[in-house]
Write a structure and sequence with these properties.
572 residues, alpha/beta, TIM Barrel, 25% helix, 16 helices, 9-stranded mixed sheet, 2 domains, 8-stranded mixed sheet
């Protein structure tokens, strides 16, 4: 019927498809809560007022009605789930729209990966918009499966489901006016699309240059002073709460002191077990910390929609999409009912519609490493002191520290007593034979090894262990399963999660992925790991755009000075 039917419904001369009666409407536009009815026609909010009649009616007496939630920056691949399984997890929590950056799968299989994610995202009760990966690979200091240049991105930039250019991690390239980096920025600016940022610790005149180039948001703020500087320069603050990087608590003082209309909630990278609560958890936590509930809901809805130019989304008003939540209170933020496009899609934490998965067979066979012998992973000792990556639980940034290692038969070995463990990054796309070798502190392993083909952003194979035998066994297991996560102790596999889709995603249901993830979690304790999310922390140790020290397949990287450094400190 179209616009005529919506107008007639709004005027009250024609029945609505659905009316939510006696609702306590959370109005994120006027920042107030008041009682009224909501009339919905053809998936659109037609009218708000009294005495609307509907073919179907919901009595919301005593309940609040909120716009549903939007995740402003997320990598679906980090959940290890197909988009259909991801939707089954997050929709019942109240998230009905996400802005996904498919750069994980793009680093493995390029444009084909974006196309796959787009096709797999259709016909879901979750609107999946995308931003195009700006840095594939993230830097020239690692080997990815593919490279995407500005011409590649130009093939997709005009698509209505593309909202902009994804996190511009190569901020040195922006500041130093790298030709290819600027060509991607110019493409987005010409098409009037957003450019998301990724600039940890960038400050002063360099930050001004980054913003002046057109970058308009950042999700890497880990402290108040960094967030305030970026807000003052006009950037949108993407407040992140992922499985490894948890910044919400640190940024609460900023949200209390400054206007929040340029603040957005995002999850970035989350494991499936963390999807049982999603953006609603961030809203709840913010309110618990003293943020006004309406402002918290704004950050989860209208702020994100306005930032990305989604004009009909994120609020309860005539002409807006009928993406709504019925909440029992403004404390738990667990939706009793989730409405998407005017239809009930979830109730009481359960999806209520059928969701089909998509064919994924063409994305297998992406773990291609050169034939290895155990000798290949050894490190010839040049001294007993090494530059070591030190991790902090819950943070992606690392420190460069000097530590002592053990030496046996002329080769460098882990110093378990001091928690200095051997780490390898093995190129797995082109069988080049590249192996980055180093040491890491902070994992707490007392035995065994952990390994994964999820290693941002190029997703080479990454291995941390106490001994070469278990590390080599873990490598062989990941080749056998064509990707995944594994824990080995004394030559035996304690737990394993197969990820055969591009080496980063499972073809299984969320229940199976969660079960196998819990088995990994139990095995982590058996080998003494002290981190909350060791696989997530490990996955970022190869990302050479986040300070201070990282390891790629090409070597040990000083991120601050943007150059490779020697592993060993020469004895004086």
């Amino acid at each position: 019927m179209g616009i005529e039917g919506i107008i007639k419904t709004a005027k009250g001369v024609e029945k609505a498809d659905l009316v939510i009666k006696n609702a306590q409407i959370i109005n994120v536009l006027s920042e107030e809560i008041y009682k009224s009815d909501i009339a919905i026609k053809e998936g659109i909010i037609a009218g708000i007022g009294e005495n609307y009649k509907g073919e179907n009616e919901i009595d919301a007496t005593g309940k609040y009605v909120s716009p549903s939630f939007i995740d402003g920056h997320v990598h679906i691949e980090s959940s290890m789930l197909l988009p259909s399984e991801f939707a089954k997890m997050v929709v019942p929590t109240g998230t009905t729209t996400i802005v996904a950056d498919p750069h994980e799968i793009s680093n493995v299989i390029g444009l084909h990966g974006i196309s796959f994610m787009r096709e797999a995202s259709k016909n879901l009760p979750l609107d999946i918009y995308m931003t195009l990966p700006s840095c594939v690979p993230a830097t020239p200091y690692e080997t990815s499966g593919f490279e995407l240049n500005s011409y590649d991105l130009s093939l997709l930039i005009d698509s209505p489901w593309v909202l902009g250019l994804a996190e511009m991690m190569n901020y040195p390239g922006v500041v130093n006016m790298d030709k290819e980096v600027l060509s991607k920025i110019k493409l987005a600016l010409e098409k009037r699309k957003r450019i998301d940022g990724h600039a940890p610790y960038l400050s002063g005149k360099d930050l001004c240059a980054y913003v002046a180039a057109g970058v308009s948001s950042d999700h890497e703020c880990t402290n108040a002073s960094e967030a305030i500087e970026k807000l003052r320069l006009g950037m949108y603050l993407m407040v992140r709460e992922g499985s490894a990087a948890k910044d919400l608590d640190a940024l609460i003082p900023v949200l209390k002191k400054f206007p929040t209309r340029k603040c957005i909630f995002v999850t970035d990278d989350r494991y499936p077990s963390a999807l049982k609560e999603h953006i609603n958890m961030m809203v709840r936590r913010a309110v618990e910390k003293g943020i006004n509930p309406i402002k918290a809901i704004q950050m989860a809805s209208i702020n994100t929609a306005e930032y990305f130019g989604l004009k009909n989304l994120g609020a309860i008003a005539p002409g807006y999409k009928a993406d709504l939540l019925l909440l029992d209170n403004l404390e738990t933020f667990k939706p009793q009912t989730v409405i998407k496009n005017g239809n009930i899609v979830a109730q009481n934490g359960k999806i209520t519609i059928n969701i089909d998965s998509r064919n994924i067979s063409s994305l297998r066979g992406t773990v291609n490493i050169r034939w290895l012998e155990k000798e290949d992973i050894k490190i010839k000792a040049l001294s007993n002191k090494v530059k070591t990556i030190e991790v902090t639980d819950g943070q992606l940034v690392t420190k460069c520290v000097e530590e002592e290692i053990n030496i046996q038969d002329g080769y460098a070995q882990s110093n378990i007593d001091e928690d200095v463990l051997k780490i390898l990054v093995i190129e797995r796309h082109k069988a080049s034979g590249n192996i980055g070798k180093g040491f890491v502190k902070g994992f707490g392993l007392k035995s065994g090894a952990i390994a994964s083909t999820v290693a941002h952003d190029s997703h080479n194979m990454i291995v941390i262990g106490t001994n070469d035998d278990d590390m080599f066994k873990a490598i062989k297991e990941l080749v056998k399963s064509q990707g995944g996560k594994v824990i080995v102790k004394d030559g035996e596999v304690l737990a394993k999660l197969e990820l055969p889709i591009a080496g980063i995603m499972s073809e299984e249901s969320s229940d199976i992925v969660i079960r196998k993830s819990e088995e990994l979690k139990n095995a982590e304790k058996l080998i003494g790991c002290s981190l909350q999310e060791p696989f997530m922390t490990m996955a970022f140790l190869s990302l050479s755009v986040i300070p201070e020290l990282k390891l790629t397949d090409k070597g040990l990287m000083d991120v601050i000075n943007n150059n490779f450094i020697e592993l060993f400190k020469k004895n004086s």
